[in-house]
Amino acid sequence: MSMTQKSWEELEQYQPRVKKLLSNSLIKQRLAHAYLFEGPKGTGKKQTSFLLAKSFFCENRVSYQPCGSCRNCKRIDSGNHPDLHVVEPDGLSIKKGQIQALQEEFSKTGVESNHKLYIIEHADKMTVNAANSLLKFLEEPHADTVAVLLTEQHHQIISTILSRCQVLSFQPLPPEAIQNELAKQNIPVHISALAAHITNDMEEALELSRNDWFAQARAKVIKLYEVLKSRKGQALLFIQSEWLPVFTDKDQQGLGLDLLMYIYRDCLSVQVGHENKVIYQDLMAQLKQHALQMTQKNAAEKITSIIEAKKRLHSNVNPQLLMEQLVLTLQEG
């Protein structure tokens, strides 16, 4: 998620299994020596590792909750706790020297106490030598040392390291969770609802929501939908004069097709009585009217034709030709 620090409450909401396991281990004072947090980008792995560090170092912890105000909590918040170390790729990989430097740090007695925690970001990017170096470290764990490895590609971690870690899987965030977070950042509902369905990466959703192009793309998609519904003769002209200048590269064209597909999916949602699942809530009146004018089969066929067009987009079809064929298909029925 986009926040630098998560709270245990947010973790409970978005990653309940991870929260339960870590909080129980903290309460029983039975933290593993090594964890592997694995899952897609933007699911809160790094924030959770800092949250764990906060509870681990907190001077006034109650149960598993850090106080947030002691010296240790504050230093973790500001990123300068002497016994918390973060290793990230130097260029494209994590090198042996970085792991050795970490081991040297850890061979000294803890600056504050004997507690030490280290976080290795993109652990899958360790070179073979770095991984072997870390393995030795994991094989002889110090009593009060915790390792947290983070990865989006856990199948690329060598099995000898995997077997020494407790693996916690982070699930993709549901759209509602992303929408709630975007709301906290004052993103308007019509934009946040769409961004939350486009990606389940919180950072990416936030970036998209703040991008003027995304708001413009949404407006063009709605306009195309209205042209297809009520001014069919103008659809081809619209593609040339208004669509292609906005959706210029393949990624943008693919996104445009997704945004259009969601409108027809909303029509289908209205038809089957799931109005609460409608993404374009501001189009509700038009969607209801349109839902009455076509059958569910027809709505489903339109969705399929947009999905097919998106597949063809990636096989190097001329985008103008592709869109022209698509609008002719969508106009039928």
Automatic annotation (TrEMBL):
UniProt GO MF annotations: 3'-5' exonuclease activity; DNA binding; DNA-directed DNA polymerase activity
Catalytic activity: DNA(n) + a 2'-deoxyribonucleoside 5'-triphosphate = DNA(n+1) + diphosphate
Matches recorded under Pfam families: DNA_pol3_delta2, DNApol3-delta_C
One GO-annotated biological process of the protein: DNA-templated DNA replication
DNA polymerase III delta subunit C-terminal domain mapped to chain residues: 242-331
Keyword RNA-binding attributed: no
GO cellular component: DNA polymerase III complex
The keyword Phosphoprotein appears for this protein: no
The entry's keywords: DNA replication, DNA-directed DNA polymerase, Nucleotidyltransferase, Transferase
EC number of the protein: 2.7.7.7
Enzyme class of the recorded protein, top EC level: transferase
Protein name: DNA polymerase III subunit delta'
Organism: Metabacillus lacus
